[in-house]
Specification:
The complex is a heterodimer of chains A (255) and B (326). Chain A is 34% helix and 29% strand. Chain A is of the alpha/beta class and 255 residues long. The termini of chain A are far apart. Chain B is mainly α. Chain B is 78% helix and 0% strand. The longest helix of chain B has 35 residues, at 48-82. The chains are: A alpha/beta (255), B mainly alpha (326). Chain A binds chain B through residues 50-52, 71-77, 80-81, 83, 87-88, 90-92, 95-96, 99-101, 103-104, 106, 109-112, 117, 156, and chain B through 1-2, 204-205, 207-209, 211-212, 214-216, 218-219, 221-226, 264, 269-270, 272.
């Protein structure tokens, strides 16, 4: 059974037609990449999948229930999102911030459940922020802040991770590390993921399926190998993209 | 997270509240010693100090505490709703509307019950006006609410100035006292206290959601907060708390803006602890300020709103300085 089902979805923001008649079926343990050039509507599509933006037409089902009829709190247990702009400036410690990820799960009005604290701490350790738990968020670097936002999402333990440019501000080593953390977490929670990014090679390495937005509501979707071709990418990004093969993998770069 | 540091802060504020009440009950033109006060509290006597205590000082201290608590609570809520550190209970024009109501009553020579109800009606009119206009054209956003409130506020300000400049000197004196906040005519009933308690209760019930909401509406929505319902609840409750406070004591400034900030600087950023601490600090702060307002230039009284600023400004700057050093 598909965890997320999108039926003939049409989306528009401002004068941009993001997609027309998009159908998607996403099952447990699947990893999807969402690609397209600046302003084509990747963020809009992700936001619509969690009900932050209304669809023009079409239907989104989470576990067979229409998105619109799922209460916010239940939806937050099922689907979590990493926003592109990270976390905003409110004075708080790292630990206070990551604990917010547990918000949809909390039972007690006042008391912090030790189990929630433990999950939050584990998420901090996963993202190598354990030693910074008591630090003020405004003293963190950009990369550390991005890791904190990721830790908050992981502490939320959703069944579907929506990631908007997760590798923003991350150094090369940590971009690779991020993939292995996500891989581990997806297996641990039998969760799936949709990742919007500009890093084609990251997606090629990590995702099994791709939605490539072409603009004007058009798109290509399917298994990574079929969608990620020099021809498709060149037309999506309006620039000649060529491939090189090394160590059995294909890499993409602009010519 | 609630730590032992927070509980210590809460305990200290309880002590501060108790001592503010003692100070307030002991100060005034009729001498009353500490032992006499304890005696009166345990076993009421029908002598002059006993009457002054029961009929003047206790009601007045309660009025001060309730007003301060209501304003501080409304201040916290407005700052979350508008996500603006400069937000105070009056920013959306509630005090302006109340002032126009109160000043009109003074102009017409009405006092007491009429004055309070005119103020309350003015406040409600302003709430409805601001919400109606901000809501009129589709989805209301916080920015639209803020802009509408600030503009309506400016409109009330103009009417207040018209009333002040066209009134007789005698009336202007009472009007200025009302505008600066004054407790000399204030009485609170069970209704006011119940509202304060209900405000804390409702606030505590959504305190976790407030912690999330202050991080932004998108994030709060994605973490399961029903942002639109919450915004409406916050707007209406802050409005009701503020309208009640100005009805009791006029527009006492400073408490609603500064008390929440003082507590945040002292580390109470989690709303589970910030809300109850704000009520205690706001309440006791106004009890202290009122005790001073009655005694500094006795037998004359100062408007309490002046004293809140006089002691509030240096103590806020002191806390600000000590937290920057850390």
């Amino acid at each position: 059974m598909a965890f997320l089902q999108v039926n003939s979805l049409s989306l528009r923001i401002g004068t941009t037609q993001v997609c027309r008649d998009l159908n998607l079926q996403l099952s447990e343990n699947q990893r999807w990449g969402l690609l397209g050039k600046n302003g084509v509507g990747k963020t809009t599509l992700l936001h619509s999948l969690i009900g932050l933006l209304p669809a023009q037409s079409g239907e989104i089902l989470i576990g067979n229930t229409p998105l619109k009829s799922i209460p916010r709190q239940e939806l937050a247990v099922a689907v979590g999102i990493l926003f592109q702009h990270g976390i905003n400036e409110v004075p708080a410690t790292v630990m206070e911030t990551v604990l917010l990820g547990r918000h949809p799960h909390v039972q007690s009005l006042l008391r912090d459940d030790p189990a929630d604290v433990e999950i939050a701490l584990e998420a901090l350790h996963d993202l190598q922020l354990g030693e910074l738990a008591e630090r003020q968020v405004d003293t963190l670097s950009g990369g550390e802040r991005q890791r904190l936002a990721l830790a908050m999402l992981i502490a939320q333990t959703p069944k579907l991770f929506l990631l908007d440019e997760p590798s923003n501000h991350l150094d090369l080593a940590f971009q690779v590390e991020l993939l292995s953390i996500l891989d581990r977490k997806l297996k641990q929670y039998s969760a799936s993921l949709i990742m919007a990014t500009h890093d084609i090679n990251l997606v090629a390495r990590f995702c099994e399926y791709i939605v490539l937005l072409l603009g004007n509501g058009e798109f290509v979707q399917g298994p990574t190998r079929d969608v990620l071709t020099a021809k498709n990418l060149s037309s999506a990004f309006d620039c000649e993209i060529v491939t090189i093969t090394a160590e059995g993998r294909t890499f993409f770069y602009p010519n | 997270m609630i730590s032992s540091k927070h509980l210590l802060l809460f305990a200290l504020l309880i002590l501060l509240t108790i001592s503010s009440f003692f100070l307030s009950l002991l100060s005034g033109s009729v001498d009353l010693s500490f032992n006499q006060l304890l005696g009166e509290l345990v076993q009421p006597q029908n002598d002059l100090p006993g009457q002054v205590l029961r009929e003047l000082r206790i009601p007045r201290a309660l009025a001060a505490f309730t007003t301060g608590g209501l304003l501080a609570l409304a201040g916290v809520i407005m700052q979350v709703l508008l996500r603006n550190p400069l937000a105070d209970p009056y920013i959306l024009g509630i005090s302006g509307g109340a002032a126009v109501g109160a000043l009109s009553a003074i102009l017409l020579g009405l006092g007491g019950w009429w004055l309070s109800n005119a103020a309350f009606a003015g406040a409600l009119l302003s709430v409805v006006l601001v919400f109606g206009i901000a809501n009129k054209f589709g989805r209301w956003s916080v920015t639209r609410l803020l802009l509408t409130g600030v503009v309506i506020s400016a409109g009330w300000g103009a009417i207040i100035n018209i009333l002040l400049t066209t009134s007789s000197t005698n009336n202007v004196q009472s009007m200025l006292f009302w505008l600066m906040g004054d407790l000399s005519q204030s009485r609170v009933g069970y209704g006011h206290l119940a509202l304060l308690l209900a405000g804390i209760g409702a606030g505590m019930a959504v305190s976790r959601s407030l912690n999330v909401l202050i991080r932004g509406e998108l994030l709060a929505t994605s973490l399961g907060v029903n942002v639109e319902a919450m915004r409406l609840l916050l707007y209406l409750s802050a409005s009701l708390l503020t309208a009640t406070a100005v009805t009791i004591a006029g527009s006492v400034g400073f408490v609603g803006l500064v008390v929440p900030h003082m507590l945040r600087l002292l580390g109470a950023r989690d709303h589970r602890i910030l809300l109850p601490c704000s009520v205690l600090l706001g309440g006791s702060f106004l009890v202290f300020a009122d005790a001073l307002a009655r005694t500094i230039i006795a037998p004359q009284q100062l408007p309490v709103g002046v004293v809140t600023a006089i002691i509030g400004v240096p103590s806020f700057l002191l806390i600000l300085r000590s937290t920057i050093k850390r």
